[in-house]
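Re: beginner question about structure tokens

> Can someone show what the tokenized structure looks like for a real chain? I only ever see the sequence side.

Sure, here's an example I had lying around. Input first:
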Amino acid sequence: MNNKEKYADLLVRTGINLKNNQLLVINSPVECADFTRLVTEKAYEAGAKEVFIRWNDEKSDRIRFNMGPDEIFDNVNSWDLDFLNSTVNQDAAYLRISASDPELMKDVDPKRMARQSKAITLGSEYYRSRLMSNQNVWCVASIPTESWAKKVFPNEKNSIDSVNKLWDAIFKAVRVDTPDPVQAWKEHQDILSKRKKFLNDSNFKSLNYKNSLGTNVTVELVENHIWFGGGEESSTGQHFIANMPTEEIFSMPKKDGINGKIVSSLPLNYHGNLIRDFYFVFKDGLIVEFDAKEGRDVLEELLQTDEGAKRLGEVALVPYDSPISNSKTIFYNTLFDENASCHFALGRAYPINIKNGENMNKEEMNKAGVNDSLVHVDFMVGSSDLEITGIKDDGTEIPVFVNGNFVL
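And the corresponding structure tokens:
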């Protein structure tokens, strides 16, 4: 098999870990059609019952945002929700190919985009809750598009060279360039599992972050928090990898337990808009001050989604000395950039990150300090000099990160 075939096969057999006779739903940009068809072939070879492809076209979306009547951005089509609810109830697996143009939407009204996103999120609450609690398996991956590749590698002599260079970077990041990618992922998962065990055994009350960018924050973790990484398991026992690539171990901050300043270390691509050089100041978990050198209006719209958007829902640890970080490439794609850097997420927390979270109702989650929101947006904070100290209930301090990397 060539590398594209190996990658498609890896996504089906390791990322999704597709079961025999299972439905697969693929969300894909139209520019990725050839690769999506290749994944479809691999899925049927693996025993898929049926593969449904949901195509999206961000250029058409841009036309719609600029020219559509205002009232349509508060609505979502019932037939679209019917499809999601129907397939999720049939134990479908979901693969999303993330490959957007980082600057396509920079001149689009951010309020329209925020309203549309809110309408979709509210309408698909049942579907989202199933995936965020791992009742269905899911995976997010990326492949190059011309516009994205030219943004990442602007100095290549033509777009073909940019695309090929991005393919090579992705193959390396997801370990497809190794002789046996499946075995390489097993070995990688073993390393992540050891780090996960260390963090779960330590049962820290809080983590303190400091670096020269200006980050100085203490993040309290919810009681009975659980660290995940190196793969997850659905409620039916189906192992899967939610993000390919992945270098992170992640858990749940207490929504009112964050105090201090967090400064971004990489740009954030949010809905086709770049947000650069931004920071947040937290008091009792709530953002009380923020700014950005670029994309401030987009960031403000994100934070105004609801109160939960102004709080943290995820804390994720990623070593600075990792394949994506070592490539010295800014991908302008959260899937990759978040796996080059320690990061947080604004918004909704994953129920799996607290003991018995999958069975808690909203009132119980709120009482436990679990953040809820219509959004979940990762942003990067890691650096080569990041120091993270774990603080236990009795005040004991234990180094977790030194000079940007795990102590183990």
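Each token stands for a local structural state, so reading them left to right follows the chain. Residues 181-202 form the longest helix (22 residues).
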